[in-house]
Amino acid sequence: MATGRTHRPATRSRGIPEATVARLPLYLRALTALSERSVPTVSSEELAAAAGVNSAKLRKDFSYLGSYGTRGVGYDVEYLVYQISRELGLTQDWPVVIVGIGNLGAALANYGGFASRGFRVAALIDADPAMAGKPVAGIPVQHTDDLEKIIKDNGVSIGVIATPAGAAQQVCDRLVGAGVTSILNFAPTVLSVPDGVDVRKVDLSIELQILAFHEQRKAGEETAGEEAVTASVPKNTPKGPDGDVPVVMPA
Amino acid sequence: MATGRTHRPATRSRGIPEATVARLPLYLRALTALSERSVPTVSSEELAAAAGVNSAKLRKDFSYLGSYGTRGVGYDVEYLVYQISRELGLTQDWPVVIVGIGNLGAALANYGGFASRGFRVAALIDADPAMAGKPVAGIPVQHTDDLEKIIKDNGVSIGVIATPAGAAQQVCDRLVGAGVTSILNFAPTVLSVPDGVDVRKVDLSIELQILAFHEQRKAGEETAGEEAVTASVPKNTPKGPDGDVPVVMPA
DNA sequence: CCATCTTTGTGCACGCGTTCACAAAGACAT
DNA sequence: ATGTCTTTGTGAACGCGTGCACAAAGATGG
Ligand SMILES: NC(=O)c1ccc[n+]([C@@H]2O[C@H](COP(=O)([O-])OP(=O)(O)OC[C@H]3O[C@@H](n4cnc5c(N)ncnc54)[C@H](O)[C@@H]3O)[C@@H](O)[C@H]2O)c1
Ligand SMILES: NC(=O)c1ccc[n+]([C@@H]2O[C@H](COP(=O)([O-])OP(=O)(O)OC[C@H]3O[C@@H](n4cnc5c(N)ncnc54)[C@H](O)[C@@H]3O)[C@@H](O)[C@H]2O)c1
């Protein structure tokens, strides 16, 4: 019997829930602010308030990293900053490439918050020959032809896609082919990638649509059902799943 | 305005789970693409593949909207586009203001995908007097002094914050005070808002940190399992130029 | 050294979201 | 009409995430 090795895959071995991972950067930001004010320790209650989460949730999150708190006192700010940074992999340098230097790509390149946490813009890549060599945010834009070489020369494993939607999958494939295993996608497309590659997407349009949904719901509540644009939607009756078929199908 | 009806049982009254709402825009996008190709009907299996989700999940999502499919055939594309659009509130016009016309704000203003789905940039607002009157994306930037008037004159209920983090809460308060009830926040800050106001955040830094976490985990797995759990400086940094991390264990 | 007080760490219950699996519904052919 | 075949709609089981509530740990003061 191997020592300590469980039968479970790595996801369980490291044991940090995805939801917790997503909150760690939030805690880190709050802790960094405290650190800059030279606050030595902080209670779960205070830190939770600053991060906008439940204090029990925060304590449970930290418990996954180990027990770094002191009962009756709280958590040591500096120590926690270090532990979370290490857990997130921010103690090392992450070269990043941005592909598609248009409106958004240029804004990202100019974004100061990038470098603040170990992320370094290693290269800017665009398909437009007219942009080649032109500096954006002090970094010369390089042509897509050299994408593979750029990735390999710089040891890049994280890529940001800010091209039009139509080019995103193709760019993605090339990034992955060159060795990139993490992608942040700003293009409004579903990217398909092989196992082992992580994709996260930032989709402005989706966010707005979600807001619009709730906005409409709020407005609808105030004016109590005034719509009736086309036959009222069948209230999803919990007990009568079928039966009503009045909704007309427009051929 | 909200007349004391701050209670919030509506989430269940309308009955559409939040997770489903978040996927509707995804389905809508895939359906729109099918519609443009004049595809008349689509099965849950096909549509699910296009949207990158499980087909059973998709069917259950649609079941919350009512039963719009035909067994043995699938879903009518045009009809579904309409139903989802209506459910999301996209059949009406949503005037939006963007506050903070810097790198990111300007990119957002120039973003074509904005207008495509009922969202209309009603105004651009910035605190910099030098920007006042200057057109960005064909729209003249207005000064923050007039924020309240702009919101009210245009009937704006959705606001986008793209100011520096330090100004975000203040801007948020003014937006809410003027009647905005949905906010999309790009600044890396936790915004606090009264009940009845929805906030969604887009945080590039957090996304990158989450990717870095998984990236580090992948790298750690490759180099075969032992890894100093506590203390000790991270060692899997072949070319790490950081080399600092002087933080030491307290106590 | 003991009492008290603060705050952590976590057991537990609950609700939401996901997925499987299948009966029923309907299209289509004969 | 009847049978076959496709695909929906959903019951049910399961796992994850959340938050309450509390015992234990440790600091602090006498
Ligand atoms: N601008 C925004 O605020 C915003 C917001 C949300 C999403 N988006 C999305 O981000 C993407 C970029 O938006 P944008 O406004 O910057 O567009 P843009 O047209 O200004 O820029 C796109 C850039 O990508 C380059 N490009 C095109 N094909 C390429 C390829 N195959 N390889 C490399 N580069 C290529 C173009 O040369 C151009 O410079 C789009 O998919 C858009 O939908 C933009
Ligand atoms: N640029 C990016 O790619 C990017 C990415 C992620 C997040 N962000 C965040 O988005 C925000 C904006 O980033 P940016 O790069 O555009 O910054 P920026 O400095 O280029 O622009 C900020 C703009 O906000 C204006 N402003 C400042 N205070 C204001 C106030 N009180 N009211 C109205 N306007 C005000 C400034 O005049 C300026 O025009 C920041 O919080 C940043 O952290 C930016």
Under CATH at level 1, the class of the largest domain in chain A stands as Alpha Beta
Low-confidence stretches of chain A: 1-13, 225-251
Instruction: Count structural domains of chain A.
Output: 2
Number of helices of chain A: 9
How would you explain this protein's 3D organization?
- The structure is a homodimer of 251-residue chains.
- In chain A, 41% of the residues lie in helices and 16% in strands.
- The first copy, chain A, is α/β, with parallel strands linked by helices and 251 residues long.
- The first copy, chain A, has two domains: 18-88, Arc Repressor Mutant, subunit A, CATH 1.10.10; 94-204, 3-Layer(aba) Sandwich (Rossmann fold).
- Chain A has a seven-stranded mixed β-sheet with strand order 6-7-5-4-8-9-10. A three-stranded antiparallel β-sheet of chain A has the order 1-3-2.
- In chain A, helix 3 (44-51) packs across helix 4 (55-65).
- The longest helix of chain A has 19 residues, at 18-36.
- Mean pLDDT of chain A is 86; it is low at 1-13 and 225-251.
- At the A-B interface, helix 2, helix 5, helix 6, strand 9 and helix 9 of A face helix 2, helix 4, helix 5, helix 6 and strand 9 of B.
- Bound molecules: nicotinamide-adenine-dinucleotide (NAD) (2 copies).
- One nicotinamide-adenine-dinucleotide (NAD) sits between chains A (99-105, 126-128, 144, 162-165, 167, 170-171, 186-188, 204) and B (107-108, 110-111, 113).
- The structure holds a DNA duplex (30 and 30 nucleotides).
